[in-house]
Amino acid sequence: MSTPPSSEELLDGFDHVETRADFDARLRENKPLTVKLGLDPTSTDLHLGHAVVLRKLQQFVEAGHKVVLLIGDFTARIGDPSGRNELRPPLSTQEIEANMKTYADQAGKVLDMERITLVYNSEWLEPLGMADLLRLLSRVTVAQMLEREDFRDRYSSGTPIALHEFLYPVAVAYDSVALEADVELGGNDQLFNLLMGRHYQRELGQREQVCMTVPLLEGLDGVEKMSKSKGNYVGVTEPPEQQFGKLMRISDEMIPRYARLAAFRTIPEIAKLTAGLNDARLHPMNEKKQLAEDVVARYHGREAAKAAREFFERTVQRKELPTDNVPELALGEARRVIDVIVAAGFAESKRAAERLISGNGVKVDGILVSDPKAAWTAKEPAILSVGSRKFAKVIPNER
Using 50, 70 and 90 to split pLDDT, how confident is the model at 55? Predict the structure, then answer.
């Protein structure tokens, strides 16, 4: 059995703690803390950005605390305005329910769900009446709301702020009251919301929670935070080859950042890695492949990670066509290459398939297809490849 993490290990990786003195005082009481993390089901996938804070939550599990994973099925209807410069379109109840179905299973890639308390904030937010809501709203001012950077910037620039957006930090703050949270975790874009939880706990006679935030992991572009809506994410349940291939797209400059936040290496390990890359003792390609293998191993196991690395080296670096575990596709009624691309699910439309061909991204048996109107001429089974990671073995019709 592994040794439970120490208080210093619990604190490692957070970029803000409000406050360290409060945290130390609670630990000295030598009783389990109620530690909360809220996730709004705004998409179907959890990604490596979510895993940064999920890993810290798991450490609190291992330390013997009461850990609560809160699914914000009610607050998702409002929409989190954190870090946004425009109004977030509201999600429908159907979209929220569809997204929720996958969250617990995906979180289980990082968390020991048998030791987690799973709750939904509609349980206490749904029954709130107008009188209750007015009492909550009376305890915060518009000036306090405009202390929040994104609200302040939008107000200053004349960008509309809908009144319901002010309800979001109030609602998530009330989550902390309902759970009587001792500690709340979140990304550093959530600090205002977490501090609002402290405010409401104080206003309603509870002990103020400790707020702990982790850095946000930038997406594959190295600029925007990781997000499915921006297309720069790596999902925790994506297939090993897909995870590995995506991670190989990060810039050399982002290797230490991903090693720290996605592979969870220690600060001394990151210092050694950074120094080695800077003085050219370490080769970026080798380090990137090792990083990708370590991340894939975390979610799929070491053997799957090694296989994903071999697949990348064979198909991308040596440009060999895969022969094993390639999905087969009957040619059927398809007559042109674009028809086959669409039938394989590699493009959503024929026009999109034409763009792939025009971008020199399509090959048949390793031969580049340059004509968007090209007919499918292979008379024997042939490998269709789109980009460096999408393959299908196309089986011709019987003669």
Answer: very high
Strands of the sheet with 34-39, listed across from one edge: 16-18, 210-214, 183-187, 34-39, 66-71, 116-120
Q: Which position has the token pair 């196309």?
A: 394
Q: Quote the CA–CA distance of 357 and 275 in Å, as a whole number.
A: 42
> What's the CATH superfamily of 7-214?
HUPs (3.40.50.620)
Q: What is the DSSP string of 30-64?
A: TS--EEEEEE---SS--BHHHHHHHHHHHHHHHTT
**What is the CATH T-level fold of the domain 328-395, as seen in this structure?**
3.10.290
How many helices, marked H, and strands, marked E, lie in the chain? 18, 11
Share of the chain above pLDDT 70, in %: 96
pLDDT in tens, 187-223: 999 999 999 999 999 999 999 999 999 999 999 989 8
* Residue spans per domain, the chain: 7-214, 238-317, 328-395
Taking the CB of residue 7, how many other CB atoms lie within 10 A of it? Answer: 13
Tokens 């405009």, located at residue: 146
CA distance 17 to 201: 17
**CATH superfamily, region 238-317:** Tyrosyl-Transfer RNA Synthetase (1.10.240.10)
- pLDDT tens-digit map of 325-339: 788 888 888 889 999
Angle of CA points 264, 230, 119, to nearest 5°: 60
